[in-house]
Amino acid sequence: MGVQADVHEVVLGRARQAVEIGCDGVVASGLEAHTLREHLGGKPLIVTPGIRPAENRPADDQKRVVTVEQALRNGADYIVVGRPIRNAPDPYEAAMQIQGVIEGLFLSA
User: Fold this and answer.
1) Does the domain made of 2-108 have the CATH classification 3.40.50.2020?
2) How confident is the model at residue 106, as a pLDDT?
3) Whole-angstrom Cα distance, residue 105 to residue 8?
4) What is the pTM of this model?
C-alpha cells in the first residue's frame, strides 16, 4: 500500500500546484480522480485516460486503468478512450457501446 499511497500523494500535490498557478484542469488516472475531488472539490477539471471495458481487458495492457463507470463515478469530467475503440473489430460499435454506458450513468443519476 505504501507505493500506492505515494502515487496518490504525488498526484494530489501536483494537482494542487496546477490549481494554484491557474490551470483549469489536469490529466489524472481514474484511480486518483476521487482523491482529487475529495481534496480539491469541483476544481480542477479532470481528464482521465486509460479507460477500458470491464470485460476482455488484455493481459498485457496498462496497469492503471479504470472502466468508464469507475472514472465518472470517481469524479472525472472527461474520459479518453483510445485502444478499446481503435482495436475493436467494429470501432463504431465499440464507441456506441461506451456511449451507452455513459448515457446509462447519466440517466440513472
Assistant:
1) no
2) 87
3) 26
4) 0.85
pLDDT at 63: 76
Instruction: Say whether the peptide bond before residue 44 is cis (omega within 30 degrees of 0).
Output: yes
Task: Write the secondary structure of 15-34 as one string of H (helix), E (strand) and C (coil).
Answer: HHHHHHCCCCEEECCHHHHH
SS3 79: strand
Residue in this structure with the C-alpha cell 443519476, named with its chain if needed = 109
- Cα-only R_g, the chain: 15
Give the confidence band of 5 by pLDDT, cuts at 50, 70, 90.
low
- Residue whose cell numbers read 491557474: 22
Query: Do residues 71 and 33 touch, judged by C-beta distance below 8 A?
Result: yes
Report the distance separating Cα 64 and Cα 62, nearest Å.
Answer: 6
Q: In what order do the strands lie in the sheet with 25-27?
A: 25-27, 45-48, 78-79
- Mean pLDDT in residue range 74-86: 94
